[in-house]
Each structure stands twice: as structure tokens, then as C-alpha cells.
Specification:
Layout: E1 2-3, H1 4-7, E2 22-27, E3 30-35, H2 37-42
Antiparallel strand pairs: 1-3, 2-3
């Protein structure tokens, strides 16, 4: 999953991502929203691994 913190500093607008790739998860008791990387890849987005 990529979230807003991961996307900071990159010239990408999350609103351009497909809405059906949006996911919610839990991290240390906090609800996190972001996008499923497999879903994005399936729609032609490239995901760089750091």
C-alpha cells in the first residue's frame, strides 16, 4: 500500500489514481488510507521500490 506520506515529494496527484484501487488498513492502531500497489500496477502505473 502507498499512502500520502509515501507520495509526498513526488509530482503525482493521488486523485488521478483509480478509485477502485483505494484501500484502508490499520497500522499500530491508526487507520490508514492509501492505494493497493498490485491494483495500480495492473492499471499501468509503475511502482518504484526504495
Amino acid at each position: 500500500m502507498v499512502d500520502g506520506d509515501c507520495l509526498d515529494g513526488y509530482p503525482v496527484l493521488a486523485r488521478s489514481f483509480p478509485a477502485d484501487c483505494a484501500v484502508t488498513g490499520s497500522d499500530a492502531g491508526q487507520v490508514t488510507t492509501g492505494y493497493d500497489t498490485q491494483c495500480l500496477r495492473g492499471r499501468g502505473y509503475r511502482i518504484a521500490v526504495r
